[in-house]
Amino acid sequence: MICAPLDPACPEAQALIAELDAALLAICGETGSGSFDPADVRGPGAVFLIARENGIALGCGALRPLAPGVAELKRMYARPGSGAGRWLLAALEAQAVGFGYRELWLSTRRVNERALAFYARHGYTPIDSYGRYVGRAASVCLGRRVDRAADRS
Fold first, then answer.
1. Which of 42, 50, 52, 143 has the smallest set of CB atoms within 10 Å of its CB?
2. Counting Cβ atoms within 10 Å, is residue 127 exposed (0-12), middle (13-18) or buried (19+)?
3. pLDDT tens-digit readout, 77-127
4. CATH number for the domain harbouring residue 55
5. Strand, helix or coil for residue 29
6. What is the pTM of this model?
7. Max CA pair span of the chain
């Protein structure tokens, strides 16, 4: 599996984001697209990655700066059964370390059990709500230190 930067406006990225939107709509009742601005992942300390295997795009994910030392994971998606999620997350964590971030934060819906289980398996634990997620009972915020990512088994 190869994870490489790509502009979120390109057709492959848009196709994956559309799949993510459809999956989230089915799980949560909304797409979550309102909390993603492609411009946020085009500047310094930000990246949008696509995971490919045999030339086929199987997943996407992004980092955007959030606070000093903290980046936010956005638009994480892997086609079910592809195995791309773990590769994407590892690549995004490596990018975060390279950018000098110490922590990664994210928000997902409490009803998104698949996402919650995925992040828990990879060491993400609940944190205080931040930004637009403060006071939103349907949302759960998770975080993980990445400056020790190499210590993870």
1. 42
2. middle
3. 999 889 999 999 999 999 999 999 999 999 998 988 989 999 999 999 999
4. 3.40.630.30
5. coil
6. 0.88
7. 43
